[in-house]
Amino acid sequence: MLSVKELVESNSVRSVPSNYISLKSPEDSMLYETENIPTIDFSQLTSSNPFDRSKAIQQLGYACRDWGFFMLINHGVSETLREKMLRATQSFFDLSEEEKKEYAGEKVLDPIRYGTSFNVMVDKALFWRDFLKCHVHPHLNVPSKPTGFSEIVDEYIRKSREVVGELLTGICGSLGLEENYIHEKLNVELGAQMLIANFYPPCPKPELTMGLPAHTDHGLLTLLLQNQFCGLQIQHKGKWIPANPLPNSFLVNTGDHLEILTNGKYKSVLHRAVVNTKGTRISIATAHGAPLDTIVGPAPEFIDCDNPEAYRAIKYGDYIQFQQSHELHRRSCLDRIRI
C-alpha cells in the first residue's frame, strides 16, 4: 500500500484516485460558520489568585459542556519545543518508505505503528493521510529514526502530560469534585498517553476526499499541535466550525471517556480533518486516558433518579481496540456502549 506522501511525490497524481473518493453524507454538507471557539488561559487556571482561577474553572466547565473543544493559551510549553516537535515529525515522514515501514505495526495496540488512511483493512474509501501512532506512557515507545527524534518526543510528551494534568484538576473543580478525583479514580499518573502524528499532503481536489471523517476521540483529553495549515473542523449546533488556532495555542478536546465518566454531562464532540491544495498539514495529537486495563464507567456522582446510568462500563484498552479495528464513522463506538 502506497503512502499518500509517496503517491503525491510520484508526480502521477493529477486528480484524486478513485479509491480515495469519499461518498458524502448529508452531514458533510452542513453549513459552515465561523464562530469563536472558547479560549482558556492556562496561566489563570493555575493562578494563585482565587478570582482568576475560579473564573478560568468556570470557563473550562462551559467549554467542556457546550463545545467539547477549547483553545489553550499561555500554557507554558515553549514555542521552541513546539517548533522542534513539528520539525522532528516532518523529518520522520521524510524518511524513505523502507525506513518508515520498519514501524508498520500489524495490530491496533502495537507500541509503534506507521501507516496510511485510518485502517486500510476496513476503510471503504482511503483517507488522504499518513500517520505514526506511538504509545508513549507509561512506557516510551518511539522510532529510533530520525536521529534525535525520540529525545524531542520525550520532552514534548512530558510537557503535554503536565498541561493535561492541570486541566483535569480544573475540570474536577468545574464538576464540583475534589481536584484529584479523576487522577485517583482512573490512576491517571500511570494512564495511557498516545502520540498520533498526522501527515496530510496537498491534494489536487480536496473536495473529493477527506483527511479523516467525522469521529470522536477515545480517552479523557486530547491536546493538538498543528503547523500553519489549518484543516480541523468541529461540529457545533448543526454546523461545521473551522478550528483556526490562535498563535502559540493548543487545541484541546474532551474525549469519549470523559463523556462516559461524567455520564454525558461533558460531551465528546464530532470533528473531522479536511485537506487543501496549498501545502502539507501536520498535526500532532496526544491522547490521554486511563491505564489500558482500567474499566471506565459513569461515576456514581453523576447517577441519580433523573440521570440513570447512560453507558456500560468497559475496559479502556478494549474500547480502543474496538474503535481502531472498525470503520471510523461518527460516534459508532460510543453508541455501542450506550444504554
SSE layout and pairings?
Elements: H1 4-9, E1 39-41, H2 42-45, H3 50-67, E2 69-73, H4 79-93, H5 97-101, E3 112-116, E4 130-137, H6 149-174, H7 181-185, E5 193-200, E6 212-215, E7 221-226, E8 232-236, E9 239-242, E10 250-254, H8 256-261, E11 271-273, E12 281-288, E13 295-296, E14 314-315, H9 316-325, H10 332-336
Parallel strand pairs: 1-2
Antiparallel strand pairs: 2-10, 3-4, 4-5, 5-12, 6-11, 7-10, 7-12, 8-9, 8-11, 13-14
Keywords: Cytoplasm, Iron, Metal-binding, Nucleus, Oxidoreductase, Vitamin C
InterPro entries: DIOX_N, IPNS-like_FE2OG_OXY, IPNS-like_sf, Oxoglu/Fe-dep_dioxygenase_dom, Plant_2OG-oxidoreductases
Organism: Vigna angularis var. angularis
SSE string: HEHHEHHEEHHEEEEEEHEEEEHH
Which overall shape is indicated by the principal axes computed on the Cα atoms?
A: globular
What is the name of the CATH architecture? Sandwich
Number of separate structural domains: 1
What fraction of residues sit in β-strands?
Answer: 15-25%
Uncertain parts: none
CATH superfamily: B-lactam Antibiotic, Isopenicillin N Synthase, Chain
**What profile does the largest beta sheet have?**
8 strands, mixed
Alpha-carbon distance between the two ends: 39 Å
Average pLDDT works out at 91
Give the spatial strand order of the biggest sheet: 1-2-10-7-12-5-4-3
The CATH topology label is Jelly Rolls
**Secondary structure tally, helices:** 10
